[in-house]
Design a protein that fits this description.
820 residues, 19% strand, globular
């Protein structure tokens, strides 16, 4: 929430933004998702900046835009530095502070400014007037910056102008407030006094934390190459750089990235560590690492942000005071809950947050977000930093930046996730259906939806199956108007039974408009398509998310991407950040001899080879491998259809009562997943049939005898479809190898992840069997990790002997199930 620094006299200084200060202190009342167009949510990502620039350019020479302001409030033990950027300062007597907000709302329905918006402007008003009246109390460079805006004779008064602009009509509405210096200073000092206890706690906590870090040593004996890895991460942080680490299983990548970041924090190099993941299990691993460091006397506040639907106390999340008692009066109680948790706990886990949320009857999800303000490390999903719809605005909004460190775990997942985040799609049928639902309740919205539908109908008539488009400006104009009507409807309607459906469309439209404003020819394409069922869709397709990702990462000072499968590294550098970023390879301490890698030369998953004979041969491979050594195996297929075809043959010809077969389906719940995996812990003769890229191909940790082999069918290539071909053509145009970027690299990444399920510790032994002759082709072999250099080429004739030799070499004298 705030940042503590030391000034030249070693007097503690706590720094907080104007926005965070007023939002935290002044909030009150209920959480209510039924008013999604409330003033505090009005600005969208690009529209706000565009509206600001437009209004500022309209003003004359007496208008000074984007003025950075700060003031220091002195308390007994510390100074509170409050800073922010005023949208505009207008010369005059009195001086006028202008605060600009964009909205889709009909300005006729806006009767007064939002209290938080007004409070921000009042903070700037105090800073300006106090500087003009008492320049000797302010920093010289700020006095010099503000003095030209004031009159020759400064009066004891200042004005605030709240400017709201409708993004559709560009109409503007002003609200004016006038204050004497006593009025504005009394108000401002009240706000800062309310914040005092939080700042005092932060100062005391930083001392405790940093003292514990100064005595903290690495918690384990360094493995070979691990000390160099830790040093690389530390240097990356203190040099404010980006780093890619290819870290095979066994390198200790979690502690090797967290420990140097913690040390850098103790030296004042970074104020927050964001540990970003795509999977629950890696969030758990990060927390376990922090807990282990706590066992060594580290004092550090950490929070795990859990998704709203998972942490909600209701059966179905419904965030309004009528449906949820935790939403009613939430903001009246939450600060007390936060302070109680803050002074009594260091680890803000899901369970701990739920305990305190129930005690104070507040929303656990919103409380978890608030705890991030006071946490030294935030463990969360990628989307809380990168997703334009759910990123943590308290850290990253309005151009905010600080000395944050980002640790991006399992970074191979971020490419597809980011492309999805920054793409947007709308369907014609959604507009038609929503139009039908709102027709009895709102004619203006019905008309706006109809206008969008007609524009999409024009595009549909010109689309044979899938078309890349040069521009869609006519549709976007209609969509902007529709967005305004959707927002007005959601703000006013209390009768429509299909309100949730309207709200869903509103979010889709808002995201589409945001991405349209964000897109460039270099990293986007627009295409439309008629699906097999006749539905028509229009999509803004992000082809390379690196520019958008860099924009997010620039909010901090340093980023470390790491994964066991960042191959080829240049692909991930191109898609996630910059081709010039540094990359290192972490040494694996696992003995290569403990891993048998076998590549079949006589089967394939090619579409042209998919027939009963090929299914039988693949099933025969599986049967031979699993019967040569009793144990647990996972078999991965390119699709559910392929899995079903092979499993049917396996069932008919090779099924053995001594082997328990499990089959993944496409609708498994979390409980189903846990039950599936529990069989590998409690049994010693299990074969799981799974899909590559699915829930069992990464993010699971089956150690020792829990898993002794993986069998991978096919090279993992994504299914050929119009969108993949569009990507391929785009990459070709950009002088990249289109097939590699659209198909081969994503496919091989899934293979490597699936293969990584076996051999999880230095003691583990196991086999990886690749069933596709295409793995032996040069362009695929070049994507093998260096630990795979000793692979063996096999066929159905000798696979049994090779597997047998591997296990005998590792001390197995007798094959438990006999030869095949």
């Amino acid at each position: 929430m705030s940042e503590m620094i030391n000034n030249m006299e070693f007097r503690p200084v706590v720094r907080v933004s104007v926005r965070n200060l007023v939002e935290f202190i002044l909030r009150s009342g209920d959480i209510d998702n039924r008013r999604k167009s409330k003033a505090s949510d009005v600005e969208t990502m690009q529209e706000g900046a565009r509206i600001h620039r437009m209004i500022q350019k309209r003003m004359g020479t007496s208008y000074h835009p984007e003025v950075f302001l700060k003031t220091k409030v002195t308390f007994e033990k510390f100074d509170l530095m409050i800073e922010g950027r005023a949208d505009g300062i207008i010369e005059g007597n009195p001086v006028i502070i202008d605060e600009i907000k964009s909205t889709h709302k009909d300005l006729d329905h806006l009767k007064e400014p939002d209290p938080v918006h007004l409070a921000q402007a009042k903070c700037y008003a105090y800073i300006v007037l106090a500087t003009l009246l008492n320049p000797e109390n302010f920093i010289e460079d700020q006095v010099d910056a503000i003095r030209p805006y004031g009159p020759e004779v400064v009066t004891d008064a200042i004005s605030v102008r709240m400017t709201y602009c409708n993004v559709e009509t560009l109409d503007v509405k002003h609200f004016h407030e006038n204050y004497t210096f006593k009025e504005i200073s009394d108000w401002f000092l009240h706000i800062t006094n309310e914040y005092r206890k939080w700042a005092e706690f932060e100062i005391e906590w930083r001392d405790i934390r940093n003292q514990s870090i100064n005595t903290l040593s690495f918690p384990f004996e360094y493995r070979e190459g691990q000390k160099e890895l830790v040093a690389s991460v530390y240097k990356n942080i203190i040099n404010n750089k980006r780093l890619f680490i290819e870290a095979p299983t066994g390198t200790g990548k979690t502690v090797s990235t967290i420990y140097p970041a913690v040390r850098a924090m103790g030296e004042g190099r970074t104020s927050k560590i964001f540990y970003l993941t795509a999977k629950t299990i890696t969030r758990t691993a990060a927390l376990e690492c922090f807990n282990h460091l706590r066992d060594m006397n580290l004092r550090m506040k950490t929070v795990i942000i859990t998704a709203r639907d998972k942490v909600c106390f209701l059966d179905k999340s419904d965030c309004n005071p009528d449906a949820c008692p935790y939403a009613k009066g939430h903001f009246d109680r939450v600060n007390d809950a936060i302070y109680d948790l803050l002074i009594n706990e260091d680890s803000f886990s899901r369970e701990t947050i739920e305990e305190y949320a129930k005690k104070y009857e507040v929303c656990p999800f919103e409380m978890g977000l608030d705890m991030s303000l006071f946490s030294d490390s935030i463990i969360c999903d990628y989307n809380y930093v990168f997703d334009p719809n759910v990123y943590l605005r308290r850290f990253f909004a309005e151009g905010n930046s600080s000395d944050y460190t980002f640790l991006v775990d399992e970074a191979h997942n971020l490419v597809d996730r980011a492309m999805e985040m920054y793409s947007a799609v709308l369907k014609k049928e959604t507009f038609l259906e929503t139009k039908r639902k709102v027709k009895p309740y709102d004619k203006r919205l019905e008309k706006a939806l109809d206008a969008c539908n007609k524009q999409l109908l024009i595009l549909k008539k010109e689309c044979e199956s899938c078309n890349v488009l040069d521009e869609i400006s006519s549709f976007v104009i209609a969509l902007i108007k529709c967005n305004g009507q959707l927002e007005r409807f959601l703000d006013e309607d209390e009768k429509c039974p299909d309100r949730e459906d309207v709200l869903d469309l509103y979010f889709e439209v808002r995201h589409f408009l945001n991405m349209y404003e964000n897109m460039t020819d270099e990293d986007y394409l627009i295409y439309d398509r008629i699906d097999d069922d006749g539905d028509f869709m229009l999509k803004l397709l992000c082809t390379n998310p690196s520019r958008s990702i860099r924009t997010c990462l620039d909010k901090g000072i340093s980023t470390t991407f790491f994964s066991a499968t960042l191959l080829p590294i240049q692909y991930f550098k191109d898609m996630l950040a910059d081709s010039e970023d540094t990359a290192v390879y972490a040494h694996s301490v696992f003995d290569p001899a403990n891993r048998g890698i076998f590549v079949a030369s006589d089967v394939s998953s090619k579409y042209t080879r998919r027939n009963e004979t090929e299914y039988y041969n693949i099933a025969s491979y599986i049967n031979t491998v699993v019967k040569k050594m009793q144990g647990n195996y996972l078999v991965f297929f390119p699709s559910y259809s392929f899995l079903g075809n092979v499993y049917s043959v396996y069932e008919d010809f090779f099924m053995d009562d001594s082997i328990k077969c499990l089959v993944q389906n496409s609708h498994m719940s979390e409980a189903d997943r846990e039950e599936f995996l529990s069989n590998f812990e409690s049994n010693k003769n299990v074969v799981g049939f799974c899909v590559m890229g699915g829930i069992f191909s990464e993010g699971i940790d089956l150690r020792g005898d829990s898993l002794i082999g993986t069998i991978i069918v096919g090279t993992g290539l994504p299914m050929v479809n119009p969108e993949r071909d569009i990507l391929k053509n785009k990459y070709d145009e950009d002088d990249a190898n289109g097939f590699d970027y659209a198909y081969r690299f994503p496919g091989m990444n899934k293979v490597l992840q699936a293969a990584g399920r076996v051999i999880r510790t230095e003691e583990d032994k196991g086999v990886i069997v690749l069933l596709d002759e295409r793995f032996l082709q040069g362009y695929n072999r070049r994507l093998f990790p260096r630990e795979w250099s000793g692979y063996k080429e096999v066929s159905l004739k000798n696979i049994g002997k090779e597997i047998e030799d591997f296990w005998i070499k590792h001390g197995v004298d007798k094959l438990p199930l006999g030869t095949v």
